[in-house]
């Protein structure tokens, strides 16, 4: 039984008001709020348990190291990865994808080699590949979605050619909530000898993930969207791919020995984790993932499916409201525009006066904005603590926007 009232009580910020109205937080796609258990765990670590990790033999260093390294096992369970050593800590998906670009792709791809991308991608899964296009002559092959924002796995597979070395694909669009059948893409790509990176920044938030079942080579997550702190994250890397990678960052922890003449590297995953890490941030992410697993990601997905269906039903009665991306089975993420010249920033500002937080802009997805023929949208992205009543509050505020600009 999913006890929504209890879940909401776990998040202190949801009890506050904004502009004299109860907070309706619908900007989860950008960054989710944090439950009390995460806040308390991070506070306790700073107040009672903090020390650097991997470097000391004293009590606090050993305690901090144990807590920090335990998160690797938590991430492994959350993603159903085979081994703890498959998990590399990062500051988030952006760093994780850049790690693969610099550490795996750059030394292996040559001019004329291809990377297949979709137009649904976040800039974090576009810009690192443009670096390789600019610097090494790598070719980017783009796959467009359908008019409703859906993306058929077959179209992605058809784009794979003799010189394709990598498919970099999102599991869920941060703009439309479109779900992509990455399992089918991974299976087809693997049969062709092509490596697949999955951007799980949104996909991991809204339902169970099983990287062993997906068959991907890389899977990136970011902690702050998973109800953990910013500056935390991880990437699953298949052991075969780890063996092919060079280090991205150099410094402490990622080395075995350093001499005047040379350096030998530590074993993965440490080989890819240089310097003092975000110790408390990663511990906070571990607590957040434990919180999600205790709720049950299947239960989270079911709750959000109910919210999404209710929102779609309410939006259907607003003939002046346009939704960018209506793919079947989409997640509870809605990009919206209003007839009459209301800019997304205007919509967001008016909604904010009612205590409703949404995102306005291009959502780091300019190619998708261009595809839909809009300069910006107002995005309402729902999470595990949102309610039907908050959908009603959003619709009421959107009606005010329409009246104002009609």
Structure write-up:
The protein is α/β, with parallel strands linked by helices and 406 residues long. The protein has 14 helices and 17 strands. It has a 7-stranded mixed β-sheet, with helices on both faces. A 4-stranded antiparallel β-sheet has the order 13-14-17-16, covered by helices on one side. A two-stranded antiparallel sheet has the order 1-2. α7 (182-191) links the parallel β7 (164-170) and β8. α11 packs parallel to α14 (388-405). It starts with a helix and ends with a helix. Its EC number is 2.8.1.7. Belongs to the class-V pyridoxal-phosphate-dependent aminotransferase family. Csd subfamily.
Instruction: Outline the low-pLDDT stretches.
Output: none
What is the share of helical residues? 25-40%
Sheet with the most strands? 7 strands, mixed
Determine and state the CATH class of the largest domain.
Answer: Alpha Beta
The CATH architecture of the largest domain would be 3-Layer(aba) Sandwich
Q: Give the strand tally.
A: 17
Figure out the total of helices: 14
- The count of domains is 2
> Based on helices, strands and strand pairing, what is the structural class?
alpha/beta
Largest sheet: spatial strand order: 4-10-9-8-7-5-6
Alpha carbon gyration radius: 22 Å
Mean pLDDT: 97
CATH topology of the largest domain: Aspartate Aminotransferase, domain 2
Shape: globular
Distance between the termini: 44 Å
Strand content: 15-25%
CATH superfamily grouping of the largest domain = Type I PLP-dependent aspartate aminotransferase-like (Major domain)
